[in-house]
Amino acid sequence: MNTTPHRPMAYVGKVKDGTDIPQRRVARTARLATLPLGAAGRATVGIGKRITGKSAEDVAAEFQQRTAEQLFTVLGELKGGAMKLGQALSIFEAALPEASAAPYREALTKLQDSAPPMPAATMHRVLDEQFGKSWTKRFQEFDDTPAAAASIGQVHKAIWSDGREVAVKIQYPGAGPALMADFTQLSRLAWLFGRMSPGMDVKPLISELKERILEELDYGMEADAQRGFAKAYADDPDILVGRVVASAPKVLVTEWIDGTPVSEIIDSGTQAQRDRAGYTLALLQYSSPERAGLLHADPHPGNFRISADGRLGVLDFGAVARLPNGSPKPLGRMTRLALDGRKAELIKEMTEFGFIRPGIELDAQQVLDYLRPILDPLTVENFTFTRDWMRSQAARIGDPRNEEARVGRMFNLPPDYLLLHRVSLGSIAVLCQLGATAPYRALAQRWQPGFAE
Q1: What's the sign of the alpha-carbon dihedral 264, 391, 355, 333?
Q2: What are the backbone angles phi and psi of residue 358, rounded to the nearest 5°?
Q3: Domain end marker among 93, 111, 129
Q4: What per-residue confidence (pLDDT) applies to 337?
Q5: Is residue 78 part of a domain?
Q6: CA dihedral 281, 285, 287, 291 (to 10 degrees)
Q7: What's the pLDDT tens digit per position in 89-140?
Q8: Domain final residue, candidates 81, 111, 141
Q9: How many domains does the chain have?
Q10: What are the beta bridge partners of residue 168?
Q11: Which residues does residue 321 pair with via DSSP β-bridges, in sequence order?
Q12: Distance CA 342, CA 159 (A)
């Protein structure tokens, strides 16, 4: 990373409110509304270009490229929940047909670990408020240029007073109201989710999601989570977690982790790098509930590095599932029942634990047919995740004309399992982007309670 560190020095000047995240719901909604309006405008221009002689292929390519650029600009500027939507899209592009995904991949990938930064004066103001006016004395050097800027905060590289390289994570002013404004918009779509999945109880899921979002704004909770991970994986040969150096409600200082971003490995890594990244990502997901009582719940590639010694460097612990009793045993148990074809027992346990709501009648064989292909990675000693595999699964369960898709729409997702479900899907999507091959079944047998019984 190219940086220009300097000695901390005083600054003067006021910061206009416009440098913060746009907070008012009306303003944010209006900005989000430019996405479909901009697309409509480009489509109209495209018709004109066709009339003047440009080919349909050229017009379509230009349309998709400009739409991707606008998507990055709008979601990146708004940050907050809008940008988190973009980060989620950047993971799940692996499920889209290549012709559709390619124009958006580069723009969406930018949202995994970068965004338009806040001005230095705004960042200094936050440090003044959180660490006091003499905060510069805590650092030997501090780089005003952010190393990364993401959804609710940006990260600066610095040298702590004791000489350690550190990452300084600073929350954007207005991040809380921005997230809540975006969340309010999401809540208003609850009826739509209910129409799409009639077997799902949507309101508890929205409440659970809101609670998780509020937790991400609390850097004190994030610091505690990172301390838990760092203790559990101290001196581990596969997983690397930086220790917390200092924290405040809106600023977090942790040890700096060098390495190759997983996003770069997805783009141009060797197969050995891909396999190593995939294995360690899966190892983290499977083992941390048992070792730390915690699960890293934000598995987009910008949050991970592969260090020079091959360890997975883990960043950003704002989104964490707290599992003091480890991973839920019913998940491992139901996975085993599905793999073994024990459909009657599977239906019984899915009903008992709320995955099938009372009054919903489903054919046991159809439920098994729906679930078995998703469990392909656990049926062989080594499995290769690919974009083609993920696309085939997305097409199979996402096409409303398929009977399997109808069965899936009748399932319920209990709120206690929402975050686990999101992490599982996100992790699988990253493994497919990597094209990684690894012994995933062995990880489940070692770390998933209930699976090996």
Answers
A1: negative
A2: -55, 135
A3: 111
A4: 96
A5: yes
A6: 110
A7: 444 455 555 554 555 455 555 544 445 577 899 999 999 999 999 999 999 9
A8: 111
A9: 2
A10: 156, 253
A11: 295
A12: 57
Specify the residue for token string 């009903």.
Answer: 351
Q: What is the number of alpha carbons within 13 Å of residue 254 lying toward its C-beta?
A: 27
Domain that holds residue 332: 260-453
Question: Is residue 427 one of the residues assigned to a domain?
Answer: yes
Structural contact between residues 217 and 151, judged by C-beta atoms closer than 8 angstroms: no
Give me 192's structure tokens. Answer: 């739509």
The pLDDT of 331-346, averaged and rounded, is: 95
Q: How far from chain centre, in Å, is Cα 132?
A: 32
User: Which secondary-structure segment (H or E) carries 94?
Assistant: none
Specify which residues 260 forms β-bridges with: 306
Count of C-beta atoms within a 10 Å radius of residue 138: 20
Task: Report pLDDT digits (tens) over 169-181.
Answer: 999 887 777 666 6
- What is the rounded distance in angstroms from the CA atom of residue 220 to the CA atom of residue 21? 21
The predicted-structure confidence for 198-252, as pLDDT tens digits, reads as follows 445 556 656 666 677 778 889 999 999 999 999 999 999 999 999 999 999 999 9
The Cβ of residue 185 has, within 10 Å, a number of other Cβ atoms equal to 15
Phi then psi for 156, rounded to 5 degrees?
-120, 145
Question: What does the block give as tokens for 367?
Answer: 């439920």
Provide the terminal-to-terminal Cα distance of the chain, rounded to the nearest Å: 47
Go through the chain and tell me how many residues it has: 453
